[in-house]
From TrEMBL:
InterPro entries linked to this entry: Epimerase_deHydtase (IPR001509), NAD(P)-bd_dom_sf (IPR036291)
Source taxon at top rank: Bacteria
Protein name: NAD-dependent epimerase/dehydratase family protein
Boundaries of every NAD-dependent epimerase/dehydratase domain copy: 4-193
Length: 318
């Protein structure tokens, strides 16, 4: 089986390339090579998809193409430039295609208009809707939720791993019953390949079933072999003290304000689980994430509170 990974130089697409190689596929990764290196023992073709004809260096046909792109113009170019040479498309999309985070529904954003700014992060959801429409109904649409695990540079889940491993009282947001959802990058890669190889088509929300924040933290603690002292801070306190939700500086990652985001981390993904997605226990993801953190020397800096910020907030709560 000849598999083209459009990407392959970082996180999810690199993991997909690695696993496809381990399954015995003939793997071609196509990227600029700026984000990182592809996994060993795959063919790497240097391309720049921002230019017309950018995929010209790719020769031959492919049984499966996996694309992780975010920009409609780039996806359209790939569909046109590879026309007639692709057995099946698997497009990695996102749960951010859903228009209303306040309640669970299937309503999508309108696709990003052709003259809109694809690079504006605010346009991420509409851009992915446009990408989905370009690859079409015959493609597998992998609507990923929060992707976590080794090599994740966003520090959302990794913050909690590093924080619980560090010890001492831990400031945690919201309540133990708050819903969270995630998927380990290795499980998402495995299912994308399984579903792509099987020729599955149409949209699938690719993430765990919802579970509680208390369970999340307990799972991380179990994986690390620690017994953390959790200090819960409610939404009013966090908002009042300018703690940011979800990610970024001065944030408590994976926390979202309610009711504004009441529909975001509660999606019923039983159809995808029935179609074979297996999400490993949080404890296993946490343990492997800590191993990667220590081996790679990665520093958690993109999301979370600094030790000083957390200590100050804990003092105010005491
Ligand atoms: N992280 C999450 O929690 C999350 C949640 C939901 C959905 N998703 C989706 O999951 C996917 C994550 O993919 P990923 O981990 O592989 O990260 P990514 O940042 O989406 O990777 C982009 C890939 O495309 C390549 N690329 C970028 N610009 C290019 C260009 N002009 N020409 C050729 N190649 C180019 C990059 O390599 P070079 O820079 O080396 O060219 C890289 O390999 C994305 O589709 C994202 O939307 C992520």
């Amino acid at each position: 089986m000849r598999t083209l990974v459009l990407g392959g130089t970082k996180f999810l697409s690199r993991e997909i390339a690695r696993q496809a190689r381990d399954r015995g596929h003939e793997v071609v990764c196509a990227a600029r090579g700026l984000a990182g290196d592809p996994p060993p023992d795959v063919e790497f073709v240097r391309v720049d998809r921002s230019e017309d004809g950018g995929l010209a260096p790719l020769e031959g046909s492919f049984d499966l193409v996996v694309d992780v792109a975010r920009h409609p113009s780039v996806v359209r170019r790939a569909v046109e430039e590879l026309a007639g040479r692709v057995g099946h498309w698997a497009f990695v999309s996102t749960c951010s295609v859903y228009a209303d985070f306040g309640e669970v529904n299937q309503k999508l954003h309108d696709p990003l208009p052709a003259d809109a700014d694809e690079n504006d992060p605010e346009n991420y959801g509409p851009a992915k809707v446009a990408c989905e429409q370009i690859v079409g109904d015959g493609a597998l649409l992998v609507r990923a939720g929060l992707i976590v695990g080794p090599e994740d540079q966003s520090d959302r889940f990794t913050y909690w791993v590093e924080r619980l491993a560090r010890g001492g009282p831990v400031l945690v947001p919201g309540s133990p019953a708050d819903s969270v959802q995630l998927v380990d990058v290795r499980d998402l890669a495995a299912w994308t390949l399984d579903a792509g190889q099987a020729g599955l088509a149409g949209p699938y929300d690719a993430i765990s079933m919802p579970f509680g924040r208390g369970e999340l933290l307990a799972g991380i603690a179990e994986g690390l072999g620690v017994e953390p002292e959790l200090v819960w801070a409610d939404q009013e306190f966090l908002t009042e003290h300018k703690v940011e939700p979800w990610m970024g500086p001065r944030s408590l990652p994976m926390w979202l304000p309610l009711p504004e985001y009441a529909g975001f981390l509660v999606r019923d993904t039983s159809a995808t689980l029935a179609a074979g997605l297996r999400v490993r226990p949080v404890a296993e993801t946490a343990r492997d994430t800590l191993t990667w953190l220590r081996d790679s020397g990665h520093t958690v800096s993109r999301s979370g509170l600094t030790p000083d910020e957390e200590a100050e907030l804990l003092r105010l709560l005491a």
